[in-house]
Amino acid sequence: MELVILVSRKLWPSMLLLLFLTVGFINGSLAFDYFKEKPSYIKSCKIYEPEFTKCSTQSIQRFLQEVFSGKVTEVTDAVGKLDPLHLDEINFKQDNNDAATLRAHLTNLMISGLSNIQVTESRVSKKDFSWLTKLFCPKFKIEGHYKMDGRVLLLPLRGEGQMLIDIDAMNITMRTKTRLIEKGGFTFYNVTDVKVDLDAMKMNSQFDNLFGGNNEEINRSTNESFNKNWRDFFEALRPLITDTVDKIMFRLLAKLFLMYPASFFVEDIPTPQKLYGKV
Questions:
Q1: pLDDT digits (tens, 9 = 90+) for 116-136
Q2: Checking CA distances to 238, which of 48, 168, 173, 215 falls within 20 to 30 Å?
Q3: pTM listed for this prediction
Q4: Which SMART domains does the UniProt entry name for this protein (predicted)?
């Protein structure tokens, strides 16, 4: 015996919506939007009170430690694993530079070391609420596939293969531009631009198949030369490394700070209407 249920065409939209919501709740697949309540790992600071920078530095340090640890499931579900962090590709072009003229296509990148970042200073502008953040990363590693064509330290460089860039004691000065926005009665940071300056105490690198991979001995001696003269090589690759870190931090911060209301960090932050006037 078969049971046939007839549903009016007028009811189909409602039935489909109900089915979608039911399946979503059962599977836990409805997307997380943002935190409505401040998590315990965030320390709030008041920008118009003394020692705000000290408070903010401690707050952002604790926040990043918690987020990079992978313990915040809402973040890992929305952004993915943060250390190591995966990037699909980066395209880079640098012309008319004394140290290097380079075109690079980097793919399937794994970035590791972010979970050990130390926040040494976190400043927030009272004028436009942009940030100046100083970071220290003990170990920073980029692994992936490269395709390069150009010149580095007077050497013609053309190759394609696996690469490794391993940087010790990297200092990062990060300037972040934001635009305050309102969502659900909360004020959020909308990150619009990230620019970094870098320096390092040491860099080791390995590029397979340099010069087309035709001569393994030349490939080995060139990599040895790059590592022996690492400071010159770092300066030659600084724009490429800086561009990579720019993109990493922008993609990360742009997502993160739309998940956490800005008032969780800066308790007395104005609304967009108060800061910009009527929009």
A1: 999 999 999 999 999 999 999
A2: 215
A3: 0.82
A4: JHBP (SM00700)
